[in-house]
Amino acid sequence: MPDYQKTLEDVLLTVSKPSRYIGGEINAVRKDRHACRLSVALAFPDTYEVGMSHLGIQILYEILNGQDEIVAERCFTPWPDMEGQMRRHGIPLHTLESGTPLHDFDMVGFSLQYELSFTNVLTMLDLGGIPLRCKDRRDGDPIVIAGGPCCFNPAPMSAFMDAFVIGEGEEVIMEIAAAMIREKGRGNGRDLVLAALADIEGVYVPSVHKPGRKIGKRIIADLNAWTGPVKPLTPLMKTIHDRVVLEVARGCTRGCRFCQAGMVWRPVRERHPALLQDMADAMLAATGQEELSLLSLSSGDYSCIETLLPALMNRYYAQRIALGLPSLRVETLSSSLIEAIKRVRKTSFTLAPEAGTQRLRNSINKGNTEEDLLKTSALVFEAGWRAVKLYFMIGLPGEEAEDLEGIASLAHKVLRTSKNRGQVTVSLSTFVPKPHTPFQWQRQIGLEEIFEKQSFFKSRLRHRNIQIKWNDARMSLLEGLFSRGDESLGPLIETAYRLGCRFDGWSDQFRNDHWENAIAQLGIEPAAFLCERPAETPFPWDHIDCGLDRQFLLEEAQKAHNETLTADCRLDGCYQCGVCDHIDIRPVRAEEEAAGAPTPAAESATREKASLSTD
Q1: Count H helices, E strands: the chain?
Q2: What whole-number distance in Å separates Cα of residue 274 and Cα of residue 597?
């Protein structure tokens, strides 16, 4: 038992939601850390409720703990009240499973899902007894690694991360583990360990890699070979997504020009429907959950969706298992799909038209029509739903006054499809240019413009059945700053952290005054990062190769200017974006695979793939 255990028990009586910090969940893995050759702390820089809702940490947890020689444990950012108590009583940040401080692990792996979690990373390092900056770490300190979408521009966090994983983690995490076990067995220090990691495809080590060397992303060619998590952890408290998550596909080639996920996670790879049913059976049996959510970037595009949904409904109808889908493209929803979903408890219904006019939807390559949206919303309300949420963006390249009016008009028209008895929530996010997208050269609108647009919607959407939601505009600007930032922003992150910034993605915790103070102290000009960039501009992420040709992105940017659509390559043939080699890496459609060889059973597929070789 850790020497701070009794103090910790007393502290838990004084903080909000103490169940965040106790562990003991169903399917949690407990191992003797000292009997294993490698110890890994999986660190998620947000609250327990958010981190436990993320599929990636559950996948890696099961893969790593599936190896006898490895122990993987979890850690999340403590809420400010808990952080204060930990500092006051000298309690280090530790893992849920064994209470081991972060500094006692061989490796600490962070999941960087959102730029506004960066100060939380520093909170966890500091509380865990790990030097913040890579240059200050010595032999005996953990190797600190990051993965996730923010790693496609690693520059802002490169001072704090020893290594970054670019792309998908299932295969590369085992290669990293094998290299660390091998180097640890040889008695090598961190410099040699980092050199070994730098030799692994998809791993970027800032201290080792020379300028100009390209780092390619890792891609799982066959998603059917990876079926985890078979036994997801079941939290003992309510989380953000309190359900079983079934990943039906990965990647998207719809080609929305603002969407980083749709660009960097290409190509589309779908799972076999029979395997998905086996996975769902295993996860529901292992957890006792009462809701099953289908996950992908566009679940309605899954090629076997018309047969999979009824099959799942028939399978779980007697158990009253609800089926949920994330935000959907309106043109992919049919009456049969809606009927399948509504057979059991109704879940929320979210649609994402993104822009208010056909002209702007064509420009961003979101070709759905107003007719599609109104037809779908009518079906939804007729099927018994009382509320619909609509996602739009403001500040898109080429946006004009008519596009804002179009959003307001669409919201009222959708409400009318409910005969004015439904509830419509209009969610407005500010466009943030992201790396590796056709819009990476575009400007981000400033605070004054954001406030003007928000004021417009306040006046145009005054209806008791229409609700408007948006994020703090200052948070959007900070996200944009780090999305396209460089190494010079590392000191800004550290300064803001030392001033007290935590949970910057939470509106009730966001301290814009601290960020303004830090920006002023360091003389940083945010406008230099938020402005439009010439086509020939070198970017801080140019050495990160997500597979897309730069020329393809430039051509798509020109198509946006011309308001021209690019068809989905799954339906209209290859347009040479650069990702596929059409041998190993290619689109995989479940309807084409369903007639082929049988897929591995859910219990065995991942176990067979996740083998550890330290030779």
Answers
A1: 23, 17
A2: 12
At residue 508, the pLDDT reads 96
* Consecutive H or E run containing 250: strand 249-250
312: its two tokens: 């799942």
Q: Please give the Cα distance from 161 to 154 (Å, whole number).
A: 9
| Tens digits of residue pLDDT in 91-121 | 999 999 999 999 999 999 999 999 999 999 9
579, 267 Cβ separation under 8 angstroms: yes
Q: Is the pLDDT of residue 38 over 60?
A: yes
The CATH architecture assigned to 223-484+539-590 reads Alpha-Beta Horseshoe (3.80)
Which architecture does CATH list for 5-216? 3-Layer(aba) Sandwich (3.40)
Q: What is the pLDDT of residues 321-338, one digit of tens each?
A: 888 776 566 667 777 777
Helix (H, G, I), strand (E, B) or coil at 220: coil
Length of the chain: 615
Q: Are the beta carbons of 255 and 560 closer than 8 angstroms?
A: no
Q: Is residue 127 within a helix (H) or strand (E), and if so which, with residue range?
A: helix 118-127
Domain assignments of the chain as residue spans, ordered by start: 5-216, 223-484+539-590
Structure tokens at 278: 């086996």
Cβ-based neighbours of 485, under 8 Å, separated by 6 or more: 153, 155, 156, 529, 540
Dihedral sign, Cα of residue 182, residue 186, residue 187, residue 189: negative
Q: How far apart are the first and last CA of the chain?
A: 36
Percentage of residues in the chain having pLDDT higher than 70: 93
Residue 212 to residue 194: CA distance in whole angstroms: 19
